[in-house]
Design a protein that fits this description.
The chain is mainly alpha-helical. The chain has 5 helices and 2 strands, in the order αααββαα.
């Protein structure tokens, strides 16, 4: 798993770390039971504060993606991947609901909104595979 941090981005470093680990879990790159790097090792490798890696792991644990054990480390939970996917889908729906409301207020048609979504999806390197 490779994590890339952008210091010039708007997202906090811990969110970037957590997001990339979530993606690796959801894609199967990090399977259930896989050990994550220690907080110190990850902080050193990414050249970030240990506080950032700790907060990323805390977020992942709070959301049920990983489990941490004192003295043993952090591991990908054995949660159902479909359940995790459904949780992500709910978050996406909430974001899209806001976009739909804004589009309606602005007089933007469904076709125009679909075009924007299509462009954004492909702009960020997304694929059509689900």
């Amino acid at each position: 798993m490779k994590i890339i941090i952008s210091n010039s981005g708007e997202r906090p470093i811990y969110e970037q770390i957590a997001g990339q680990i979530k993606n690796a879990i959801m894609s199967g790159e990090l399977p259930e039971g896989a050990a994550l790097p220690s907080l110190r090792f990850l902080a050193r490798e990414l050249r970030v504060s240990i506080i950032s890696t700790k907060r990323a792991y805390e977020e992942l644990e709070k959301e049920g993606y990983i489990e941490s054990f004192q003295g043993k480390g952090s591991f990908v939970t054995a949660r159902n991947r479909e359940l995790m996917r459904e949780e992500q889908f709910k978050k996406i729906e909430a974001c899209l609901q806001g976009a739909v409301e804004m589009a309606k207020i602005s007089g933007i048609s469904l076709n125009e909104l679909e075009e924007v979504l299509e462009e954004l999806f492909h702009l960020d390197g997304g694929s059509d595979a689900v």
